[in-house]
UniProtKB/TrEMBL annotation:
Family annotation (CDD domains): ThiF_MoeB_HesA_family
Protein name stated in the entry: Ubiquitin-like modifier-activating enzyme 5
Domain annotation THIF-type NAD/FAD binding fold: ranges: 84-308
GO terms for cellular component: cytosol
PANTHER family membership: UBIQUITIN-ACTIVATING ENZYME E1, UBIQUITIN-LIKE MODIFIER-ACTIVATING ENZYME 5
Length: 411
């Protein structure tokens, strides 16, 4: 048994070959068949466009911020279209986007994998001691070798590294010297969030901010479009608004709670909205929260602050307001509807209802119902010889009582 264990440890994992073009062929050997089914079912117009997208995953951890403050605290996650680190939320986000066949991922983080991270998804005990971006890139390349992954192992909040980060997302797109399509932020502190916010405002890049609470039972995502929606500095949290040093919030020997369930849910909301944005389907949420205690998902929209402290945000606001209103295109003539699935693989047929006679009164009532709707309950059948209640204003109380007695009389 010991000999077998050593053999398995020394065995080298062999991944699949790269695939040049996504195929919708339904075979067990096609890793994209289930994804391409979204296109066949009319959810996405052209799913393979995902391979032309670049997302930035940025992560940054400050040693003294173990989550010891009563504020949003999450591990860093960022992908080509947004800064997302490779911690609790970011690593799962990167994993999901890789399995979805994203074209390119930029991973930003300078933390190392620890055994204390094993309560989270993605990382494994044998990766302890490795840098998170190194461990993540190795795993993600094995999962899907078609995804281009670049790693950036440095702290984006320092002056020099911020310029490196700015240049990386400005030139990190699929095409050479083009910006990333989206930045995903899942960092665990406000300093890093503000750095991402400044960079995206300066470059006018859309990004998602995300976070999980210190008690691990709530989280949120926020879609920020510079100039159109509130940036992170438009309505800053107390720690930023009051210029509080995060170091002073540290409580000795206290660490934030962390649940893989909450982080997985937040990562799922993040990637779902990322795909909707990149592939143009559904409605992208401006803000989507999650309260695990009562399974509550609040949604809202946040408008930009015209007195924001970020000068790039103010510039983006002016640019957005200067844009001409969108021209409403003329409604085209309705096209003849064609069957969505002409081949009818599952042999589904429409069968007419039996010709059941309908009461005259019921038929009369239903004739006034718009096609496609039905009554929740049947109207009572009124007998022809039943006493009628008059609506004349001059009817006396005695007459009304007599009419009611006649209606209640047993046959």
């Amino acid at each position: 048994m010991e000999h077998e264990g050593k053999q398995s440890e020394s065995a080298v994992k062999v991944g699949r070959e790269r695939i040049e073009k996504m195929s919708a062929e339904v075979v067990d050997s096609n890793p994209y068949s289930r994804l391409m089914a979204l296109q066949r079912m009319g959810i996405v117009k052209e799913y393979e466009q995902v391979r032309q997208k670049s997302v930035a995953v940025v992560g940054k951890r400050i040693p003294f911020t173990c989550g010891a403050f009563g504020l949003n605290c999450i591990s860093m996650n960022d992908m080509v279209f947004r800064f997302v680190g490779v911690g609790g939320v970011g690593s799962v986000t990167a994993d999901m986007l890789t399995r979805c066949g994203i074209g390119k991922l930029l991973l930003f983080d300078y933390d190392k994998v620890e055994l204390a991270n094993m309560n989270r998804l993605f990382f494994t005990p044998d990766q302890a001691g490795l840098s998170k971006v190194e461990a993540a890139a190795k795993t993600l390349n094995f999962i899907n070798p078609d995804v281009s992954i670049t790693t950036h192992n440095y702290n984006i909040t320092t002056v020099d590294n911020f310029d490196r980060f700015l240049d990386a997302i400005r030139t990190g797109g699929i095409a050479q010297d083009t910006p990333v399509d989206l930045v995903l932020s899942c960092v665990d502190n406000f300093e890093a969030r503000m750095a991402i916010n400044t960079a995206c405002n300066e470059l006018s890049l859309n990004w998602f901010e995300s976070g999980v609470s210190e008690n691990a039972v709530s989280g949120h995502i926020q879609f920020i479009r510079p100039g159109e929606t509130a940036c992170f500095a438009c309505a800053p949290p107390l720690v930023v608004a009051e210029n509080i040093d995060e170091k002073t919030l540290k409580r000795e020997g206290v660490c934030a709670a962390s649940l893989p369930t909450t982080m997985g849910i937040v990562a799922g909301m993040l990637v779902q909205n990322t795909l909707k944005y990149l592939l143009h389907f559904g409605t992208v949420s401006d803000y989507l929260g999650y309260n695990a205690m009562i399974d509550f998902f609040p949604r809202m929209s946040l408008k930009p602050n015209p007195t924001c402290d970020d000068r790039f945000c103010l510039e983006r606001q002016k640019e957005y307001l200067a844009k001409p209103p969108s021209v409403v295109e003329a409604v085209a003539e309705p096209e003849t509807e064609e069957p969505l699935h002409e081949d009818n693989l599952y042999g589904i047929e429409l069968v007419e209802d039996d010709d059941t006679p309908v009461a005259a009164s019921e038929s009369k009532v239903q004739s006034n119902i718009v096609e496609g709707l039905k009554l929740a309950y049947d109207a009572p059948v009124v007998e022809e010889n039943a006493p009628q209640v008059t609506t004349d204003d001059d009817v006396s109380l005695d007459q009304l009582m007599a009419q009611m007695s006649g209606m209640c009389k047993k046959e």
